[in-house]
Each structure stands twice: as C-alpha cells, then as structure tokens.
Amino acid sequence: MAKELNKKSEKGNQLESEEIMEKIVALCKRRGFIFPGSEIYGGLKGTWDYGPLGSELKFNIKQAWWKAIVQKRQDVVGISASILMNPKVWEASGHTTSFTDPLVECKTCHQRFRADQEEIIQAHEKKHLDLKEKVEWTQPRKFNLLVEAKVGVVEGEKSTVYLRGEITQGVHVNFKNILNSSRLKIPFGVAQIGKAFRNEITPGNFTYRSIEFEQMELQYYVKPDEQESMKYYEFWKEERMKWYQDLGIKKENLRFRQHASDELAHYAKAAWDIEYRSPFGWKECEGIHHRGDWDLRRHQEFSGQDMSYFDQETGQRFIPWVIEASGGVDRAMLFFLIDAYQEEEERIVLKLSPKLAPYKAAVFPLLANKPDLVKKASELFSILKEADLGMIAWDERGNIGKRYYSQDEIGTPYCFTIDFQSLEDETVTVRDRDTTKQERIKISEATSYLKEKLLK
Ligand code: GAP
After folding, report:
1. Would you say the CB of residue 198 lies under 6 angstroms from ligand 1?
2. Tell me: the pLDDT tens digits for 358-370?
3. Does the pTM exceed 0.85?
4. Domains, the chain, ranges and CATH?
C-alpha cells in the first residue's frame, strides 16, 4: 500500500515528517540527485550540488518552464542577463535599503535567527529551557540579504558589487534594448532563468532555503491600467498554478495564499504565493507579484534614461506596469520530488511526470551472460538513444527485480526488457513504473510507443 505523505503531515506528526524528509535527503544523496555543497571540506551551509540525476531533473523542469512560458507563446521572449550588475541597479531597485529580514541573536549562545520564524525561535527557546538555561534575545535589527563580492585587479582598489538578489533587474534594465531590438507590443513578457544569491539568516529544510539558488521568472509588461493589469494578474496566477498541476503535483497539495499588506515586498502592489503542502508545512513555491511601475520608474530616476513606452495605436507614452511570476527552480524540484515519493510494500517509487523524469526509459537484456540477448538489447538501446527523447538508461546488473527496483527509485517511467521471445519474434516487454504492468510490443514500435507516452 502506498504511503500518503501529506496525510501524515496533516496529522501534524512532526517525527514522521522529519523521517520523510530524512528519507528524501538520503535518496537524493544515494542516487545522485543532490549532494551537500563542498562536502569533502565539511560543506558550506545553504549550498547544494546537483548530481547526475539531479542535473537532468533540474534541466527538465527548466525546459518545461521555458517551453510553456516562451516557446509556446507569441508574446514572451527570453533573456539571459549578467549576474553581476552595476551597484546602482540595486540602489534603484530598493534592495540596498529594503531587502532585509529582521534578525535576532540569542544572548546565551549567540546563534542568529529570523525574528519572524516563530517555530524556529520557539524550538530554540525550548532547547535552552530544557537545559534550565535562560533565554534572552537582542532587539530585532534589519539584516540586508544582498551578497557582496569584490571585482577589479588592483588590490586596495577593488570595488564592491552584489551577486544579484533576484534575477528580475536584469530584465528591467534591458527594457529599452528589448523593445528596440524586437517588434513587441504591450502587453508582452520577458522570461529568464538564472542564479540568485541571498545571505539567508536561517538556510534550511534541505534546498528549500539556500543562499545560492535558481529562479525562473516572467516579467509581463502591461498598460498602467488598474482593471487591465488585474486581468493579466489573474491570468498568470491561474497559468502558473496549472503548470505545477499539469506536471503532476497533486491538486490538494497546492494552494494560493495572499500576502497581507504588512508582508508585501517593497516593490509589490499585490502578491499571492503558490504554496505547496510539504512535510514541513505549507510553503511558498512561487510568487505572483503586481510590481506596478516600481522597477522602470526607479531605473528611469536613477539612470536618467527614458524608460517609457510609446503606444502607436493610442499615441500615448507611459511607463508600463509589471506582472511578475517568480518561481524557484530548486524549490520546484524539491516539491516535485516530495510529491512523487511513495513507499509501497516492495519498493520505493518516484512517480515523477515522464516529462520531468531524469531517465525516460531503461533497456535491459534479461540475462547479462547471453550474448544474443545483450546484442539485441544494445541495438534497442541505441535506437532509443538516437530518437532524441531524453536520457535512456542501460542496466544488465543483478536480476530483473533489482533492476526494476533501482529504476523505480529514480522515477524511470518505462523499462524495456529483451528476453528469449524477443529473439524469435522481434518483440520486447515494456513495464510501466506506476502500474508495474507489462505489455509486449514490437521492437520496431518501441520509439513511437515511448514518444507517445512522453507527450501525454
Ligand atoms: N523577483 C521576485 C522575487 O525574487 P521572491 O518571492 O523573493 O520574489 C521568488 O522569490 C521565488 O524564488 C520564491 O518563490 C522561491 O521559489 C525562490 N526563492 C527565494 N528565496 C529562495 C531561497 N533562499 N532558496 C531557494 N529558493 C528561493
């Protein structure tokens, strides 16, 4: 029987939730999805390295996003801006002054925490109280999250720059370049995927809060009109929710949450999060923000460059408003993994969408010591690899049951086995990961079979 992860967390069973996360972290390490960053040197808190399977999964998530947001639309183009930017960008965007979290320090042990993370604060207090120690906190102070770096070649004359705290500004500073080099008309969007960096006070929950992470963002420029901008705001909210569901996250594990006015980021007129029901509670996966004219107006002010748009149809000139859909690639990947993870009686299985699965299929010869079987299986392996459908795995170790177990654990949706009958009638068995049912198809139809399944 499949264990339902989220029913457990609904019961609030802390231990079981922790156990589930431990199992997922262990699976990620064991099978090469995610490793702790710089592990052989004792690690660097809040950094993670993606292994062979993790890189594939991450790539597939980004590709699915890019396809949906850019390639399948006519009104969105892509950009890939620099991580390092002129520091004035961050003054204009408000990050040097307002990109802060409230920090408190425990006066007993000098550990630092975010003052707004009540659960963590309470757990820390309990730790001291259990040891009969008193707990006293410093007053909360604003802690800026921008990560600094030094550039320049002359010691003593190096200048301080920031590793971008959000990928957003690379789009807005290029607004005019994009307009002048394309034939886009408002409304239109600019999409980007890339790394962002934040000096998080309490990185944690595996990759959920890291200091280096990837974002996938759409900045959608609209007319400065309340009603029209809200129409696009609602459109993108729904589109983004649908994207997660279409890629397999269970509906009941996703919800919207509106930001209260005192919670809004400095640039936002309105904000809703798409949240995921994780073993550590409902957590933000993506933010849909109404940024108004904040970014372009501020860049116009600070750079002295004109950031307006001329609408040829109406003859009006204006600074567009921006609707933003800002998702985290690492968070999406973590939530896809958690949602797909199931323990059944005889196996652990990752029921990932075939579109995201690192390997699309595996090919086995039934017995590794039979050259005819190995030859036929390797022919099929080459055909499937050449078909350009994604990564195909080869396995001839151990018995067939172990090979299925191994592929289930990494989410491979289909396993093709060449057996003795294959040598007689040019057929192959295909096993479906989710149902474990097998069917026999013609070897010559294996590519179209797999293609059709992957397109579903
Ligand atoms: N441009 C808007 C912006 O950056 P945000 O809500 O601060 O908005 C957007 O971040 C998304 O980036 C989040 O929903 C989350 O998925 C991801 N993200 C933010 N901070 C993160 C962190 N420390 N570690 C991993 N992902 C993070």
Report:
1. yes
2. 999 999 999 999 9
3. yes
4. 2-82+164-339 (3.30.930.10), 359-455 (3.40.50.800)
